[in-house]
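pipeline/complex-builder :: batch 7 item 3
reading input block
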Amino acid sequence: MKLKQLESLLGNLQQFDNPKIELEQYPTGAHIASRMLYTAENSFGDVSNKVVADFGCGCGTLGLAATLLDAEHVIGLDVDDESLEIASINAEDLEVEMGLIQCEIKNLRWQGQIVDTVVMNPPFGTRKKGADMEFLSTALKVASQAVYSLHKTTTREHIKRAALRDYGASSAELRYDLPKQYKFHKKKDVDIAVDLWRFVPKPKHESSS
Amino acid sequence: MYRGTLTVHVPSSWTNRVQMHPHDEAERVVEGVINGFLLLIEAERVVEKQVDFNPDFLKNMFSKIDWKALADASKTMGYDELPDEVPDPSVLDSQFLQKFHHALLELHLEEGTLVCPETGRRFPVNKGIPNMLLHENEV
């Protein structure tokens, strides 16, 4: 699928009716979502034929992008049932399947190496302090191959250090496939620069069940 | 206080081992050595959905999943064709893979409940979405 086509399909998805500020709900724009998943697939092969989880999926944009790029199976997780409802409708409209689970990411553990890739646009932690780190920590526990995540540019050093030192990442790369300073419209008059990261978790050792 | 870690076994094995974990327990968990309690399924409505057959993917998944869990869950959802014993990986022929495919990917729990046998904790499933939110007193 061509990037432009992917972006177009994502641009037609339904978004939040009434975004819940306390959950930092805002749509992941089609421009950034399409480029994020396109990079994951074309540069690293992290999407097609893989199991992909979208943490904090909201209306499902990232997860649905993964299905359109031929992920074998995609699961979206979010705390908010209204968002999951919209994600479900979006999946139907695109005629794709996406598993959905309502849960809190910070409490999540996923036994086994089932999930290959985690994609996410996590809360920045402006409402609930440390939310971004909770997402990153859990993502690196769950993913067996790669984590793609968006974080504020201002937190760049902190994110890198935490990922490598505390959360079991063997590498933390900034991806410059996006325009260098991607302005992320959170409110109409405020732009927030974000970085796209690719983290690789250290291999996990598991006893066989 | 809810202490157990649970293994969810919903439709396919994606959520096979989803666990809900109180946050501070996380640091004490030895990675990969988690005793999961298999959630029991109370199926009210199961839907079969067609999914494209991908043998390479299935062979890869075979080594990752808990066979008994899959066989039990499939039975609960009305599909009885999987052998109880783990098949030898060397004999994963097309016929077996079709059954595996069906159980793993095509059975969806639309309405029902997941129940932790240890604590009795119930997680409802509505419109195919399990609600695994923990209550405040469980965290």
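note: Chain B has three helices and seven strands.
queue -> next item
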